[in-house]
Amino acid sequence: MANEALTLLELNKRISSLITVASTQNVWVTAELSDVAVRGGHCYMELLQKDVERGTTLAKARAMIWSSLYPRIEAQFYAATGQRFGTGIKVMVQVSATMHPVYGISLVINAVNPEYTMGDLLRRRREMLERLKQEGILEMNRSLEWILVPQRIAVISAPGAAGYGDFVNQLYSNPAKLRFEVKLFPAVMQGERAPETIISALEQIAAQADEWDGVVIIRGGGATSDLVAFENYDLAVHVAQFPLPIIVGIGHERDVTILDYVANMRVKTPTAAAEWLIARGLNALDGLRRLGADILQTVADRLSGCKERISYLEGLISSMSTAAVQRNKSKIQSNLLALASVGSRRITPELARLNHVKDVMSSSTKMAIERKNTRLNTISELLDAISPQATLRRGYSITRINGQVVTSVSQIPQGAILETTLADGTIKSTTNN
Amino acid sequence: MANQPVFTPVKEMTYTQAVAELESILRMMQSEDCDIDQLAAYTRRATELLKDCRSRLTATDEELRSILADLEK
């Protein structure tokens, strides 16, 4: 079979003419950038469409910007978004499909709408911030308190970068010779690897967190300002939850990344971070100076106060002793006078009263004795009248045998010796029968 | 003679603790309770704290040189 075959070039030209039609020319399309590279002034890249849920690639196309357009487009884009073309950036570009016989199908970009990128960036950042807030970690690093004078600073930066050098120079050239301890934890500070290397540096620092007072994340400086890499949720989570306060100095004055929202502090430049730390130290030195001066002044005041008081007391004591002697003398004098007048005023009537009492007492005593005597006499007469003696005198007698009183004849045995008591004596007699 | 106060060794204190003690010494000195017998002891203590705090904050030229040399390695 003698088939007529096309050359590959002919086929490619056919394809080219088929796709180079009005519906594929100057079309606005939204896509995500990947593998951006500039060669020979032209900018080459891949445009991607990803599945929002799963992140898988749904569509992919090669694209480029000719060197005649690239510098202008790039500058406009950067001016409007603060971003360079780079992986992960969402763009709205005006493209025309082309087919090159050797290089195949490619989309040639002739215009970019920066507003779309800006809107997408802000929307994504808003979403991340909202999520961090929901998770309760948005304010965590921001609410950490710095110690009074942070001196031990862990720095995350690209080694050998100008920004790190600026930071260290600024820190160590401070005129007050404030002491700082700085250690670099290297990380890639641009491009796709930035988040993972920064997170790994943060983890190293966290492992020795009690050796550091705070963390400074600074960019190397340089021209490319690929900030999209920092718009990373995982990185934001690590910064927000970091146990030490973090200073972020990765943007420029105008450029903000999500880290600026979650870090304890944001500064515009590495130098500004150093200045803030120095200011903190100078402030503390000032405080010490003030405290020292205040203490000195207080001690001086107290001592001079004490001296004044002592010399006042000295004067007081010498004048007081003579005054006290004088005062006591006159007091004794007046007491004497008072005593004298008390003597005449109080003692005389007392004496008179005593005399009177004496008279009254002696007369009343006499009377009382007489009264008692009279009474005694009466009683004595009475006693006399009823006494046995009186009875005996009237002729009665008492008969006893052996001292026992005899009241009946039957009590008297034969031959008993009777004792008979009369008024004037006792006789003994013996009975016969 | 009043009892002499007992102080924590400065080396065992943090900077913040040292400054807090300086402030409390100042307040105490300014109050009427301050015993003149203890004034000397507190002044000595304050001087010691101030000196230590300052030396923690600042480095000597020699230290600075060695730190910078380390950083350049």
Give the tags:
heterodimer; A: 433 residues; alpha/beta; OB fold (Dihydrolipoamide Acetyltransferase, E2P); Rossmann fold; five-stranded mixed beta barrel; five-stranded parallel sheet; 14 strands; B: 73 residues; mainly alpha; 68% helix; elongated
Protein described:
The complex is a heterodimer of chains A (433) and B (73). Chain A has 433 residues and is α/β, with parallel strands linked by helices. Chain A has 4 domains: 8-120, Beta Barrel (OB fold (Dihydrolipoamide Acetyltransferase, E2P)), CATH 2.40.50; 152-282, Rossmann fold, CATH 3.40.50.10550; 348-386; 395-430, no CATH class. Chain A has 9 helices and 14 strands. In chain A, helix 4 packs across helix 8. The longest helix of chain A is centred in the C-terminal third of the chain and has 117 residues, at 270-386. Chain B contains 3 helices and no strands. Chain B has helices spanning 15-30, 36-57, 61-72. Chain B is elongated, with a radius of gyration of 17 Å. The A-B interface holds A 147-149, 151, 168, 172, 176-182, 281, 284-285, 287-288, 291-292, 294-295, 298-299, 302-303, 306 and B 15-16, 19, 22-23, 25-26, 29-30, 34, 36, 39, 43, 46, 50, 53-54, 56-61, 63-64, 67-68, 71.
TL;DR?
The complex is a heterodimer of chains A (433) and B (73). Chain A is of the alpha/beta class and 433 residues long.
List strands and helices in order, with pairings.
The complex is a heterodimer of chains A (433) and B (73).
Chain A: H1 8-19, E1 27-39, E2 42-50, E3 57-65, H2 70-81, E4 90-100, E5 104-112, H3 114-134, E6 152-157, H4 162-172, E7 181-186, H5 194-207, E8 214-218, H6 233-240, E9 246-249, H7 259-262, E10 265-266, H8 270-386, H9 388-393, E11 398-401, E12 404-405, E13 417-422, E14 425-430
Parallel strand pairs in A: 3-5, 6-7, 6-8, 8-9, 9-10
Antiparallel strand pairs in A: 1-2, 1-4, 2-3, 4-5, 11-12, 11-13, 13-14
Helix pairs in contact in A: 2-3, 4-8, 5-6
Chain B: H1 15-30, H2 36-57, H3 61-72
Helix pairs in contact in B: 1-2
